[in-house]
Amino acid sequence: MSKVARKGAAVASVSLAVCLAAAACSSSSSSTASSGSSGSSTAVPSISISSLNRTFSAMATLKPLASIGKGNVAAILPDTVSSARYTEFDAPYLSEALAAAGLTPTQFSVQNAQGSDATELSDAQEAITKGASVLIMDPLDSGVGAQIETYAKAHGVKVIDYDRLTLGGSRAYYDSFNNVEVGTLIGNGFVACATAEGVSKPNVLVMRGAPTDNNATLFAQGYDAVLKPYFSDGKYVEVGTPAGTWDPPTAESEFQQAYTAHKNINSVLTPNDENAAPIITYLQREGIKAKTFPVTGQDATLVGLQNILSGYQCGTVYKPIYIEAQAAVALAMYLRAGQTPPSALVNGSVTDSKTNTAVPSVLGTPEWVTTANMNSTVIADNFVKASQLCVGQYAADCTAAGISS
Predict the structure, then answer these.
(1) Across the strands, what pairs with 75?
(2) 147 and 49 inside one domain
(3) φ, ψ for residue 297 (rounded to 5)?
(4) Which of 95, 110, 297, 396 has the highest Cβ tally under 10 A?
(5) Residues 205, 115 share a domain
(6) From the CB of residue 154, how many other CB atoms can be counted at a distance below 10 Å?
């Protein structure tokens, strides 16, 4: 499911922190006497990342923070083109989590910048003018992200970088997934798929997301590390590496140009489902049969999952966005109340490579999804409904994968 741009190709290094104590990770309802700027005697609840699930039940634990917090929470998402996730999942999940945590509809907002830097900046400025004390912000790129964070800091507003890190920014926390691990899963998924499909000498076109998107850089860091030994010992051939994009038509054009020039290409590593979809359609027009030409993906989109079922895509990286959304809201509730989020929630650290500063982070765990575990992951989580997935030509494929609508 993960769309994008970041000005600067600096790489953020990710390190996951281990929970400090087993007890701290096991409870979502424990509380301690409040301390911090709110000055209230209300007990401060504690919540852990392990308590976040698809029922959103852990959010109710945060209701005491709603009563002692000040100001509104404004979430700003980047676009609707690079991934369907922002409208289908992030926006409704954020709204559900904010309401479940005790905020009224007048105390929060969720907006989308529609792919415009200017709109994202003006949305943030307007939200602050209207009383936002915390922003949950997924930057289109680090340039506008840094502008927003500078403006927010000048107005005493805390910012949470959501899904993408603003390089050179001044956010309080970062909430995402281990994005190098996302790339590693894509790389390992490609290797397994090439073996399973009997491609004895993969001639690989290695594609990337937008070069201005730091997440794309991290994804590539992960899958490049997996593929490098195969290229080095001659088992695979790296035919090319296009410039990269999160725009599906541009990705298709990049692939077509490479495929036309190098007919020996027999596999492609694509960094997300949206980019893979038009490439698969093109390959089908070219007469390529299922399970003969490895293609990878990310985001567990409906089309991506259907391409997996039909044998045209190896797998996809599933990132449980309901966890990411709840984690962002939890961080926002603590910040709004002038409290420090617990270590059981803030489970990692990411380095902003532009400022060389460590950013306290909540990092979820991604998962590689194929027909073997589709039913126990995306279907079980209601991320995609079986009734939507298993239609028409995909009904028999669902049955074979143990998925019933």
Answers:
(1) 110, 136
(2) yes
(3) -165, -175
(4) 297
(5) no
(6) 9
* Cα distance between residue 222 and residue 230, in whole Å: 14
Residues 312 and 375 in one domain: yes
Does residue 405 belong to any structural domain of this protein? no
Same-domain status, 67 and 161: yes
State how many domains the chain has. 2
Cα–Cα distance, 210 to 388 (Å, whole number) = 30
How much is the pLDDT for 38? 41
Whole-prediction pTM: 0.83
For residue 3, is it within any domain? no
Residues 254 and 202 in one domain: yes
CB within 8 Å of 303: residues ≥ 6 apart = 273, 277
Is residue 98 very low, low, confident or very high in pLDDT (cuts 50, 70, 90)?
A: very high
Task: Please report, for residues 16, 107, 209, the alpha-carbon distance to residue 9 in angstroms, rounded to integers and kept in the order given.
Answer: 22, 36, 11
At 287, is the pLDDT very low, low, confident or very high (cuts 50, 70, 90)? very high
- Over residues 12-40, the pLDDT tens digits come to 443 433 333 333 333 333 444 444 444 44
Say if residue 313 is in the same domain as residue 329. Answer: no
Q: How far apart are CA 238 and CA 251, in angstroms?
A: 18
270 shares a domain with 235: yes
Summarised one tens digit per residue, pLDDT across range 210-265 is 988 889 999 999 999 999 999 999 999 999 999 999 999 999 999 999 999 999 99
- Other beta carbons within 10 Å of 355: 13
Could you tell me the two tokens for 147?
A: 């502008």
Q: What share of the chain is helix, strand, coil (3-state, %, to 5)?
A: 40, 15, 40
Read off the CATH number of the domain in which 310 is found: 3.40.50.2300
Concatenate the DSSP letters of all residues of 226-275 into one string.
Answer: HHHHHHHTTSSEEEE-----S-HHHHHHHHHHHHHH-TT--EEE-SSHHH
Q: Which residues of 309-322 are buried (b: 16+ CB within 10 A; e: fewer)?
A: bbebbbbbbbbbbb
- 56 and 198 share a domain? no
Which of the pair, 36 or 181, is modelled with greater confidence? 181
Domain containing 286: what range? 179-318+368-400
Is residue 8 domain-resident? no
